[in-house]
Amino acid sequence: MAMLNIPRTILRPARYIGSEPNHVRKDLKDVRLRFALCYPDIYEIGMSYYGLFLLYEIANRVDGVWCERCFAPWADMEEHLRQTGRPLTTLESHTPLSAMDVIGFSLTYELNVTNVLNMLSLGGVKIRSDARRDKGPIVIGGGPLMLNPKPYAPFFDIIVAGEGDEAIVSILTVSRDMAGERRDTVIAELSKLDGVYSAHTERAKRLFVKDLDRAFHPVRPPIPAVDSVHNRLNVEISRGCGNGCRFCMAGFGYRPYRERSFEAVRAVIDEGLRNTGYEEMSFLSLSSGDYRRLFDVIDYARKEYKGLSVSLPSLKIGSIGKDEISAMGEMARTGFTFALEAPTAGLRHRLNKDIDVDSLVTRLPQLKALGWRRLKLYLMVGFPWETEDDLKAVRDVIAPFRAAGFDINLSVSPFTPKPHTPFQWLPMDDEAVLDAKIMLIKDALKKTGVRVRYRDTSVSIIEGIVARADEDLSPMFEYLHQRSVRLEAWREFFSVGPYREWFELNGVDMKAYTGALDVHRALAWDVVDMGFDTQFLRDELNRAGAGDMTVDCLNGCAGCGLACSQTGGLAPDRKIEAVPVVPREDSGTVVLSQAPPKKVTFRYGKYGNARYVGHLDTMSIMVRAVKASGIPLRTRGKYHPLPKIVLTDALPVGVESFYEFIEIETDADATVDSTTMDDINRRLMPGIKIYEFIEGSLKDVVKDYLFLLVSAHPREGDLTLWRETGGRYFYTWQGKGVKQIWNQGMFSRIIKIGSRQNYGI
To answer: What pLDDT is stored for residue 568 in this prediction?
Structure first.
């Protein structure tokens, strides 16, 4: 790959290099279709999204297709691109989006729509489908937001409604086989596929995978070069949700509830950890505690992978028992997050949120005995039935947790009605009302020690408008794009002003999209057939008004009309028998001996595009490669174990080196040789390479070094001219202050080397 030249002023330049461990590169002579998989937010967010890894691996398994990634640039990089006239490119090959054959966006959040238009524009692609005519790539929209496709249809050539696991294979296969034909011809053919909505279709049936055990699961995710929000192995244990919370888009959008078998989950864990060396794993599910083999998978991870931490990001109160807690208590420490949603049982019944707070309270002594001290709770406000007494009751709910000695972080979010849910017809409270309700909760929790965090209510109002948008709001997104609105998920870039301007200019009342909707009129998102009856949603809304609960899908049939037993969902009478955990012979279990540890020091280089990877991120990449190679790492700390490593001083970002060192501590009998070193190097990203290993401590290694400063022109000063070659001038510098020298911009490259060695540079 060509050496990039990213300006020194760019924050976190490693976001844009694209050569991470496990990234996919293909020989262009074997490629018939180029596919850009885009996530409309910055690198750190997109590289935390399970769906991206899933589609990336699936697409790259299609013969003749090369799938590359692209993320929204931060403001500084966008400014650089616009000033220089350079286009937004893919990460893997740095190809402009306009030169790709197919572009796909996965939209998971309402405020990322403007990022889509901005990325297309930066990539040299017309933002409207009808403006592309017969030029440019085919642009696809997918993700949960596309279950309401009409507002976004002008910007996409086709839209996929529902889960894209299987649809992406069909789309890429048809596009590959029709390469060279007219865009409109290809689009017309793609529009015939199941689950596709376009100008050629009037309605699309939502897609979903019927059998998770037969579905693909990513096991070689690219390891981020910049620490992402969730930099860990994601293991999907189930999909969908059977709880039927009436406000939840995910719960209805991903119906029916499906589980991945214990055997399949175990295989994903084994291969995923072997390919990544991750020290943390997250079990993905809309309700992790409902997975009926949860204890088995936790127990397997506990026994097979010492030092591994497991997180359960989505837990219903009362869904996790003493056995699961006990098993997790013996592992590296993770936090617990519970969705309370409403302070009182009566209000939770209206939401169809069947939780038993008392059952969690009874588990508090066990949690505390095992080392937990902090819990996170989620709460929503803005439901039409809630009273002041309901909100004030949050103090009584939290009192037992504080009495038990737990620190509580409470996150408060306004309710936003979402399509395809029983609450899709409900109004949103005004900003002032929402602010007052949040302040009521804060006041109720004064002097309790509870940390209360809450969403900006103006943000929630816009989320609600975009969620229930129709085709009349399509011009609004074009207007926002013209106003350079983007990166709205980030507080420093969000402003409600441009939205209000558009509504005022066009004489549209914002309350038309935040107010109550007529339960009997057609809705914009009715063009997607969800598979369940709309009347069921109306009935659920009526039951909410009456305060009645509906049975969850794990204990009966709610009667939504999906016919789970025929569509691959969880039939109420399905039984799952326990399967004993049988350790694999090559399980990769790390069992540290009681013998004194051994210290091994590696000399490595960081050069080329890897020079943009920061010090801590380099450390993470190195440690994970070492772990994945099978070398057991000694750790320190009981609840948050960290590997026992020692590093040389941090290099300034952008400076190269062939003389960096990392010391690890391992078992006395652990084998570290040239074969081991080669295995580690195969797991590292291009530009990071181990050159030698020394048995012993870093403090015993000779570390005399100097810097080579490379310039196209001779320089004056107290620097000693070393040599000139190939039209470049090389200087030696032995001292401090290299960061200041680099930031001055006088030198195109600075390279750290051992003063007693010649690297032939």
So the answer is: 46
Rounded distance between C-alpha atoms, residue 269 and residue 260, angstroms: 12
Q: Count CB neighbours of 692 within 10 A.
A: 11
The Cα 672–Cα 293 span in angstroms is 38
* Position 345 pLDDT exceeds 60: yes
Question: From the CA atom positions of the chain, what is the Rg in Å?
Answer: 28
Q: Which two tokens stand for residue 191?
A: 């529009």
What residue ranges in 44-137 does DSSP mark as E strands?
A: 65-71, 102-106
Q: Is 646 a residue whose pLDDT tops 60?
A: yes
Q: Residue 222: name the closest of 27, 14, 40, 80 by CA.
A: 14
Residues whose CB falls within 8 Å of the CB of residue 60, separated by 6 or more in sequence, listed in order: 24, 26, 66, 67
Query: Options 1.25.40, 2.60.40, 3.30.70, 2.60.420; which CATH number does 590-646+661-692 get?
Result: 3.30.70
Distance CA 49, CA 67 (A): 16
Every domain range in the chain assigned CATH 3.40.50.280: 13-204
CA neighbor of 75 nearest in space, from 609, 481, 492, 497: 492
* C-alpha span between 663 and 186 (Å, rounded): 55
pLDDT digits (tens, 9 = 90+) for 67-98: 999 999 999 999 999 999 999 999 999 999 99
What is 13-204's CATH superfamily?
Answer: Cobalamin-binding domain (3.40.50.280)
- Could you please state the CATH topology (level 3) that the domain comprising 233-454+540-567 is classified under: pyruvate-formate lyase- activating enzyme (3.80.30)
Amino acid identity of residue 443, one-letter, is: D
Residues of the chain with CATH 3.80.30.20: 233-454+540-567
* Residue pLDDT, tens place only, 449-463: 999 999 899 999 999
Provide the token pair at 696. Answer: 């012993």
Query: Comparing C-alpha atoms, which of 360, 359, 342, 343 is closest to residue 351?
Result: 342
How many CB atoms within 10 Å of residue 311?
21
The stretches of 413-571 forming alpha helices (DSSP H) are 431-444, 457-467, 474-482, 497-505, 511-514, 534-546, 564-567
Q: Is residue 618's pLDDT more than 80? A: yes
Instruction: Give the residue among 341, 163, 350 at the shortest CA–CA distance from 256.
Output: 163
Give the model's confidence band at 572: pLDDT under 50 very low, under 70 low, under 90 confident, else very high: very low
Amino acid at position 602, single letter: F
User: Within the chain, how many helices (H) and strands (E) appear?
Assistant: 25, 27
Contact between residue 138 and residue 102 where contact means Cβ atoms under 8 Å apart: yes
| Cα dihedral 307, 313, 314, 318 in deg (nearest 10) | 40
719 pLDDT exceeds 60?
A: no
| Digit-coded pLDDT (tens) for 347-381 | 999 999 988 888 888 888 888 887 788 888 999 99
CA distance 622 to 602: 10
**Facing residues of 730 across strands?**
710, 723
Compute the 3-state secondary structure of the chain and give helix, strand, coil in percent, each to the nearest 5: 35, 20, 45
Q: Are 336 and 372 in contact (CB under 8 A)?
A: yes
Residue 136 tokens, joined: 């440019």
**Residue 45 CA to its chain's centroid (Å):** 5
Give the residue with greater pLDDT, 22 vs 737. 22
Could you give the C-alpha distances from 281 to 57, 236, 312, in angstroms and in order?
Answer: 19, 10, 9
Angle, vertex CA 102, rays to CA 101 and CA 104, nearest 5? 160
Scanning the structure block, which residue is given the tokens 């510098």? 733
pLDDT tens string 698-714: 988 877 899 988 887 77
- Chain region(s) in the chain for CATH 3.30.70: 590-646+661-692
Structure tokens at 413: 């979010």
